[in-house]
UniProtKB/TrEMBL annotation, chain A:
Protein name per the record: Protein EFR3 homolog cmp44E isoform X1
Superkingdom in the source lineage: Eukaryota
Pfam families: EFR3_ARM
Protein family membership: Belongs to the EFR3 family.
Organism: Musca domestica
Family matches, as InterPro entries: ARM-like, ARM-type_fold, EFR3-like_ARM, EFR3_Homologs
TM stretches of this protein: none
From TrEMBL, chain B:
Keyword Lyase set for record: no
Keyword DNA damage: no
UniProt name for this protein: Ras-related protein Rab-30
SUPFAM superfamilies (UniProt xref): P-loop containing nucleoside triphosphate hydrolases (SSF52540)
Organism: Musca domestica (House fly)
Taxonomic classification: Eukaryota, Metazoa, Ecdysozoa, Arthropoda, Hexapoda
Length: 833, 217
């Protein structure tokens, strides 16, 4: 048995079907070229092959004879395999004798035949000889032969073969080309040629195998672990060159045309990586990413992360868009695995993440987007919970994560930003948790929320502040910890500020704000103010009373001022006046506030009054405010801006000056003189502290507003609600059933049969119901009723919170949590299409 | 005559600077290269030897010892028939790393791969690892053992010829006992049916009792 195999070896192309030798009519079992009895009558194909070689190797391939050989091969395709074998034998001998020119000629002849005959069904056998030849050349230590062989291989790789090739293997080629990619010849030019050849070879193998399932599976680990690092190794040296070139291009020293003609190993390697990533289907992405990450780890390319960013950008740009999410996910898992690495490394990783996350954002919607957010938040939690003392490096890492979050949110449409904010809001530990860790976490998460908030551009407050978001935010606005509260105020500011006034209003002043930009509040703004304005102002009063620190007070003022600029108008002014009176009242009635703190509240009250008067353009009001200011200038300048700094002054100021206070009746009079409604102001009670648990107190105004709306402006309000009546889920007070048509066959029939008038009547009835609901319910109730709007997202959130709250502060858990349901893993196609 | 009877893949591993490249070049080119630079990634060399009249083709993959290339070099372990693990007898740390190397080999190479421990640079007079210690270690870990000097050409030929002989034995016993397992005979690039050289699988049951014999010089 074994000796038989040996025979087959010695006779390179034996086969039972081999035809008898043309001269002796014996089955030809004797090795080629040694058939003594045939020497006089060599087979035709051999003579044809011999003739393509010149006498003097310098003369190169004999073209005319090559044409004859080609013609012969085309007319007798059955001889193709023997021609290939013979050429291979000849070249082998020439290699051993180092007659490299002849080797070149043999290779060129094979290339020609391959091109000419690629449509032949017998090509397969010829290809085997061809590839053995390529391998033979690649095995030689002569670099020129290796390059020559690679070029032939590349030509072959670009040919589309018609017949499948079941038993062809490419592992030698992958191994050898990868090795060439690391070429290290002392001669730099030769080194680069070898590396280029290696990269081209790799590209060839990819092209040859990627579309053909029958041959090598290029995506297998042992191949990707060679190919990917080889490409990256070459790209690594390109980053600096690239930047130089970019600068040169920018400065005009290098024209793009010139640039394009020079293919360097880094440039080509990058191109091949793009091609590889572009061809990867869902199941293959990780096979590419894993060695990629390992390479970056091994070659310490995270800090600094220029190359890592560059590489990941390439991946993100080249990958089929529907898979870009996987890249983000994989990078996050890598961050998980690095939880023990230095904060510097983690920061770098997070920065890379932030640079690519935007590209994935466009493709990941709904749950997957929340998964990413959730993962980032988990990393933040881990960072907070594992470090007792936050070092500057660690906080840089947190900063980087927050930026990633912001970047991610930034590339989502605004309605999804709201969902994201809602999601983050719900992960913030509530105020009952008072440990230092929880406090840090609150701040970090609120900062992330702020990051998203600043990306959101508010058009309608109704949309920017859904009840389920507003409610917890208002709770947080009363956080005892100053920095926490300030972040919440910043969140409010970024969501309230539709006209870029935040900077303008950042100082407390009674002078006109010159750069203030303003627009009359819309109907929907007014409705929002009526619905939720009071709750926000209530929270602001509480926050103002919580601290006498300048930054804290200024930040609350800023929020209040923005609220006024955005919402104050003839219809809402009374509410704001009650708010301002409330601030003043806290200053006069709360015993536990410091003297300086009380002064500050008076200052804020008068500044807000002046602002309100200016914004609403009610001159009587402005005159009244200015009169108070004048009096205070005479008697008590400490009741005028700027705010007093408790750190700098410990004087006790006289606050028992009722004649310098803002007077409620006087305000009502101002309105009256301006011909405006003053009923609410006259009968209403100024805001007071800690009203959160007692909405009953405030809800009085809801009624009064409703009544007032009914008799004053009902038609306008109705139209406003009409617009809303179409959106079923957002309409409170009306059960879904009543609103949504019943989609049963009967119902449809009825619907079709009914005259349009009745449909109209039905709609009117629905609208009336909605309007009634708004008028007759108090705030809390309304909120409860509007909540189902967020049902779907809420459920999803709840799921995630539950998993979060099982104290999964270790990254391992986080990773588990990200595991895909089984059907996703097994049927990715099903899932994605 | 060009054809060969067996093709074996041999991979050299070990710390940077232990002399892997020098061993390979001594064997394939018969020289000791002055100022041999560190290997980048993986180098490839081929040499055909004759054992008992049979031509044997040895594909030699010389890996970089540097840490940063570890991931690409590991990917070459898998298809190896023989792994030569090299340390420098005049450099204790290169010996101390051997367990790490074995762990990697265990993780990435074929379980039945032929393993040879080589202590190189015997020509140096500042030896830190006695022969005995190296031999003990090899025995413990089921490896063949040999001490070499690439510089003085000592035991270099022998190293590769012993490997070839051992692999031939394995192949023969395998071939006689059962038909060849095509899956395990990881081949050269091509395996056209008919002209395929008999492939060796490196998985025959290998007993290393003889390892010390091989090593005693
Ligand atoms: N004295 C002596 N020096 C040797 C011997 N073999 C190698 N060297 C020297 O050791 C140094 C490293 O040899 P290399 O062959 O490059 O080592 P390597 O294991 O290939 O190193 P990497 O490629 O970095 O993994 C060189 O300076 C050689 O001259 C030897 O047998 N004796
Ligand atoms: Mg080396």
């Amino acid at each position: 048995m074994f000796s038989y195999r040996c025979m087959r070896l010695i006779i390179p192309r034996p086969s039972v079907s081999r035809p008898p030798c043309s001269c002796c009519f014996q089955p030809c079992l004797i090795p080629l070229g040694c058939c003594g009895c045939c020497s006089a009558l060599r087979p035709r194909y051999k003579r044809l092959v011999d003739n393509i070689f010149p006498v003097n190797s310098e003369d190169g391939l004999v073209k005319s004879n090559m044409e004859k050989l080609t013609f012969y091969s085309l007319s007798s395709p059955d001889k193709l395999d023997r021609i290939g074998e013979y050429l291979y034998q000849k070249a082998s001998k020439d290699i051993n004798r180092k007659r490299y020119k002849f080797v070149e000629i043999a290779m060129e002849a094979m290339d020609n035949l391959l091109q000419a005959c690629h449509a032949q069904t017998t090509l397969n056998l010829f290809v085997e000889s061809f590839l053995r030849m390529v391998q033979k050349l690649l095995e030689d230590s002569n670099p020129n032969l290796q390059i020559l062989a690679t070029n032939s291989f590349v030509k072959f790789a670009n040919i589309n073969e018609d017949t499948p090739s079941y038993h062809r293997r490419y592992d030698f080629f992958i191994s050898k080309f990868s090795s060439m990619c690391h070429g290290n010849n002392d001669n730099i030019e030769l080194r680069d040629s070898i590396r280029l050849a290696g990269i081209k070879g790799v590209q060839g193998v990819i092209r040859k195998t990627v579309s053909d399932d029958l041959v090598e599976n290029i995506w297998e680990k042992q191949h990707m672990e060679k190919i990917v690092p080889s490409l990256l190794f070459n790209m690594q040296f390109g980053v600096n060159v690239m930047f130089v070139k970019k600068n040169m291009l920018a400065s005009g020293d290098l024209t793009p045309v010139e640039d394009a003609t020079v293919v360097t190993p880094p440039v080509l390697a990058e191109e091949v990586l793009r091609e590889l990533v572009g061809r990867a289907s869902f199941g293959h992405i990780r096979s590419v990413l894993k060695p990629l990450l390992t390479h970056l780890d091994r070659h310490e390319l995270w800090v600094p992360n220029t190359f890592a960013i560059h590489t990941f950008r390439i991946v993100m740009i080249s990958i089929q868009p529907q898979y870009s999410y996987t890249v983000v996910e994989t990078l996050m898992q890598h961050l998980d695995n690095n939880f023990k690495s230095s904060p510097k490394t983690r920061t770098s990783l997070a920065v890379v993440l932030s640079k690519i996350i935007a590209i994935a954002a466009g493709e990941s919607v709904g749950p997957s987007a929340l998964d990413i957010i959730n993962n980032l938040l988990t990393h933040l939690r881990t960072s907070v919970s594992t470090t007792t003392e936050i070092t500057p490096e660690e906080s840089q890492y947190q900063e980087a994560l927050i930026n990633a979050l912001g970047e991610f949110a930034n590339h989502h449409p605004d309605y999804q930003k709201i969902e994201i904010m809602l999601f983050i809001m719900n992960t913030v530990p509530d105020l009952s948790k008072k440990s230092k860790g929880d406090q840090m976490l609150q701040n970090i998460l609120l900062k992330s929320l702020l990051k998203v908030g600043t990306q959101y551009s508010t058009t309608s407050f109704e949309k920017a502040f859904p009840a389920s978001f507003l409610q917890p935010l208002l709770k947080m606005a009363r956080a005892p910890h100053d920095p926490t509260r300030i972040i919440v105020m910043q969140i409010f500011q970024s969501l309230l500020d539709r006209h870029q006034n935040e900077k303008v209003l950042s100082t407390v002043s009674i002078k006109p704000y010159a750069a203030l930009s303003q627009e009359t509040p819309s109907r929907s703004d007014i409705i929002f103010t009526h619905k939720y304005g009071a709750n926000i102002m209530q929270a602001l009063i509480d926050s103002m009373a919580l601290s006498e620190k300048l930054d804290s007070l200024t930040s609350s003022y800023n929020t209040a001022a923005l609220l006024i600029v955005e919402m104050a108008c003839g219809e809402t002014v009374q509410e704001f006046l009650l708010f301002i009176l409330g601030i003043q009242q806290v200053a006069t009635t709360s015993d536990d506030l410091s003297n300086i703190h009380k002064c500050c509240l008076h200052i804020i009250a008068i500044a807000l009054l002046t602002l309100t008067a200016r914004v609403t353009g009610i001159n009587n009001l402005l005159e009244y405010a200015q009169k108070i200011i004048e009096d205070r200038k005479q008697e008590a300048t400490y009741l005028l801006p700027p705010l007093l700094d408790s750190k700098k002054s410990n004087k006790s100021y006289n606050l028992n000056l009722p004649h310098l206070a803002i007077d409620k009746m006087a305000l009502a009079e101002c309105l009256q003189n301006a011909g405006m409604d003053f009923n609410r102001l006259q009968t209403g009670v100024p805001y007071a502290l800690n009203q959160i648990d007692n909405p009953g107190h405030r809800h009085s105004w809801v009624e009064s507003v409703s009544n007032h709306m009914t008799h004053r402006n009902s038609s306008a309000d109705l139209t406003a609600y009409n617009a809303d009546a179409d959106s079923i889920s957002s309409s409170p007070g009306v059960s879904k059933k009543a609103l949504a048509p019943e989609y049963t066959v009967d119902a449809m029939k009825r619907y079709l049969a009914e005259p349009p008038e009745s449909v109209k009547r039905e709609q009117q009835e629905k609208q009336k119901q909605i309007v009634r609901a708004f008028r007759e319910s108090d705030f809390e109730d309304l909120m409860k009723r509007t909540e189902p709007k967020h049902d779907v997202i809420q459920n999803r959130l709840n799921d995630l919170f539950n998993s979060l709250s099982i104290d999964n502060k270790t990254p391992q858990n986080a990773a588990n949590q990200n595991e895909k349901p089984i059907y996703e893993t097994n049927f990715p196609e099903l899932f994605y299409y | 005559m060009e054809e060969y009877k067996f093709l074996f893949k041999i991979v050299l591993v070990g710390n940077a600077g232990v002399g892997k490249t020098c061993l390979v070049r001594r064997f394939t080119q018969g020289l000791f290269p002055p100022g041999q630079g560190a290997t980048i990634g993986v180098d490839f060399m081929i040499k055909t030897v004759e054992v008992e009249g049979d031509k044997i083709k040895l594909q030699i993959w010389d890996t970089a010892g540097q840490e940063r290339f570890r991931s690409i070099t590991q990917s070459y372990y898998r298809s190896a028939h023989a792994l030569i693990l090299v340390y420098d007898i005049s450099c204790q740390p290169t010996f101390d790393c051997l367990p790490d190397w074995l762990r990697e080999i265990h993780e990435y190479a074929n379980t039945k791969v032929l393993k040879i421990l080589v202590g190189n640079k015997t020509d140096r007079d500042d030896r830190e690892i006695p022969t005995q210690i190296g031999e003990e270690f090899a025995k413990q870990h089921d490896m063949y053992f040999l001490e070499t000097s690439a510089k003085e050409a000592e035991n270099v030929e022998r190293l590769f010829y012993e490997i070839a002989a051992e692999l031939i034995d394995q192949a023969r016993s395998k071939d006689n006992s059962s038909s060849m397992n095509k899956n395990l005979s990881d081949s050269v690039g091509l395996s056209p049916q008919g002209s395929k050289p008999p492939q060796v699988s490196c998985c025959s049951g290998l007993s290393n009792q003889s390892s010390s014999q091989t090593g005693n010089t």
